Amino acid sequence: MTRSRVKRLLKTSPRVSPFLVIGDPTPQLSVELARAAVGAGADMIELGFPYSDPVADGPAIQAAAGRSLAGGTSTTQAIALLGRVHDAVPETPLNLLVYGNLVHARGFDRFCEEVALAGASTLLVPDIPLEESAVLKRACRKAGLGHVQLVGPLTSRERLARIDRFADSFVYLVAHQGVTGVRSGGFDAVEMLVARVANAVSNPLCLGFGLSKREQIERAFRAGARLAVVGSHLANVIGAVWADDQPGRDRMVVEAFSEALRTLTTPETGRKEEHAGHHA
Q: Which residues pair with residue 163 across a beta bridge?
């Protein structure tokens, strides 16, 4: 799916995207989890390549990357797996999150061309900031990939405007300063942040980092977000079932992931009606 189609898709209605580390907990299961994600109502999927020295990953995503790396997932294997995921869910946009060293090591043009051919729609490299992104953006455009930049709670109005002008698919808002991970506590500050940033940008707004409940997603959508990404919460679900090594574990991982994701993609009003129907 091209970056322009991704942009149009996000402008039609808000979407929910799981984040999955490719190769977690096994190569085959990561393909099955992507297929299960679409079955559970996901409209996009964000995929991360495992990396040993991340700057933005909290404990849950680091553990997911560790499981993938322990299974031997290299960059070359990750690109091949990306192709298998695309074949499994060909109509679903795939946003790729990769750390800069993996892109540098392969070369910007070669990396972008290979992941685009494998099926990626957009590319986010969190440790290559706006000021160093010109070469990467040229490589993305040459390959037909959308280029995504992060903004956060402390991003100035001037920098936000520059990133919005630079963006060609969507702007990715980090809900909390720091690394990924499920947060407890109130959501009021995040909701106000989403509303402020959504009003300031012309591109569709994606919200990630810390989301784990449907209520948070609905509040983010009402505030102006067009895409909500959930990663650590789902990685914890996968990790907990995988750690309980027993017969049928692969199937149980997929079922637990599907159930958790369906809770996030189903509007609370729909669940209430369903619950009422069971008791009618």
A: none
For 57-76, b/e burial (b = at least 16 CB within 10 A) is bbebbbbbbebbbebebebe
Q: Which of 24, 46, 168, 191 is catalytic?
A: 46
Give how far Cα 262 sits from Cα of 94, 130, 228, Å.
Answer: 19, 35, 14
The per-residue pLDDT for range 94-152, each reduced to its tens digit, is 999 999 999 999 999 999 999 999 999 999 999 999 999 999 999 999 999 999 999 99
If you ran DSSP here, which 8-state letter would residue 185 be given?
A: S
Enumerate the β-bridge partners of residue 48.
21, 97
Check residue 280 and give its pLDDT. 41
Is residue 114 part of the annotated active site? The answer reads no
- What whole-number distance in Å separates Cα of residue 131 and Cα of residue 146? 17
CA distances, 36 to each of 44, 105, 146 (Å): 12, 32, 25
What pLDDT is stored for residue 3 in this prediction? 65
pLDDT at 175: 85
Q: How much is the pTM? A: 0.90
Q: Is 57 a catalytic residue?
A: yes
Token digits for 250?
Answer: 């692969």
Q: Which of 24, 43, 57, 168 is catalytic?
A: 57
Spatial contact of 91 and 1, defined as CB atoms under 8 Å apart: yes
Which segments of the chain have a pLDDT < 70?
A: 1-4, 179, 181-183, 185, 270-280
Q: In which element (H, E) is residue 191 found?
A: helix 188-200
197-207 pLDDT tens trace: 999 999 999 99
Both structure tokens of 106 = 């392969």
Q: Where are the alpha helices (H) located in 71-133, listed in sequence order?
A: 75-88, 100-106, 108-118
Q: How far is CA 200 from the centre of its chain?
A: 22
Q: Residue 39 has what DSSP assignment?
A: H
